Give the backbone structure.
Amino acid sequence: MKRVLLCAVLLAWSGLASAVVYKWIDAQGKVQYGDRPPDGVHAQIVEGLGNNRSARSEPARPTVASASSSRPVKNAQDDGTKKAVDDDVAQAKEKQCADAQARYKNLIEGRKLYKAGADGERQYLTSEEIDAERLNAKRDIDTICNSPS
């Protein structure tokens, strides 16, 4: 029953994952995502899970010309792109830290811990193996969550 439910959820999710998502940088230099980009911005189609499409640019829609030169705008776009990359790296690091903390919590609170064997059967860990996994998980937290970069 659980497998049928899991299969149904995965099928429903795959339909959502195939939707087109655009990525662009707003006027404040923040990365934005949505199903429709606003007028006058350079947007890219984000490659989703299961999509075979490559990221491609959406042509900019017509906008009112600004009086400023293109050089300062280029620098502002570079700064915005750098900030967007830094934000993406920070988000990835936060996710890795949260995953490491969840793994450690599971190892601390779990009763019968196991790993999947070669044939797919559960192989329950001994107390020594659990202690070793807890130490590794704690080291991962210290390395991932407390590193400066």
